[in-house]
Write a structure and sequence with these properties.
- It contains five helices and no strands.
- By secondary structure, the chain is an all-alpha fold.
- It has one domain: Cytochrome Bc1 Complex, Chain C.
């Protein structure tokens, strides 16, 4: 019974961090211009605090998702009544990992382009 409460808490934390990540992403969305000529300059002009918060929330999302999956795996959450939570947390963690990878391509381009526009 205690393991189920811990797993439910981890899944709730996963959902909360995911929602915060989406909110910061939506706030940053108007600042970015996805065109060949303007992408670099618009990404350079993003608000640093929001960009940093969005970056660290994505890392926390992966960590909390991994903890939820590990705890659910070892406590057998995939076999119990919380099977839907297990599948949902698995899908949300995989989606977060994919989005974090694709979201980090832009900063890599900014760091390794040598300042070329």
């Amino acid at each position: 019974m205690r393991a189920k409460r811990i797993f439910n808490g981890l899944v709730a934390a996963l959902i909360l961090v995911g929602l915060l990540e989406m909110v910061t992403g939506l706030i940053l969305l108007p600042f970015y211009k996805p065109s060949v000529t303007e992408a670099y300059n618009s990404a350079k002009g993003l608000p640093n605090i929001l960009e940093s918060l969005h970056h660290w929330l994505s890392a926390i999302l992966i960590i909390v998702g991994g903890l939820a999956l590990l705890f659910g795996l070892f406590s057998g959450a995939y076999r119990l009544n919380s099977k839907k939570l297990w599948i949902g947390s698995l899908l949300l963690t995989l989606l977060a990992a994919f989005l974090q990878l694709t979201g980090h391509l832009l900063p890599w381009d900014r760091q390794y382009s040598g300042g070329r526009t």
